[in-house]
Model the fold of this input.
Amino acid sequence: QVTLVESGGGLVQPGGSLRLSCEASGIIFSHYRMDWYRQAPGNERELVASISIYSGGAPNYADSVKGRFTISRDNAKNTVYLQMNSLKPEDTAVYYCHADHELVSLDYWGQGTQVTVSS
Done:
């Protein structure tokens, strides 16, 4: 059984930081590109950041989070992280972890974790 379990969400004031984690089980983690998506109420789900399996590949970020968010992965722990700094109210959303196999059409989603940025 494949599971992706996100953690680290919560309520934070504008300008604050949070670190999201997503631990995967049931997959060969190192074979999957890992993504973070987010979805705010009334909006479509959008890609926030992505990190490939290739060590030479640079992570990709949405323009809205460049310079503030950092995605990283630890293949030994089957975990992907999203460090979020300088948070803004518009970052408020449910954040989802997504695993996408690099070679075949196979992907999985986590259940999501709520991030609320408010004073």
Notes: The chain has a mean pLDDT of 95. The CA atoms of residues 32 and 105 lie 11 Å apart. The longest strand covers residues 93-101. DSSP finds no helices and eleven strands in the chain.
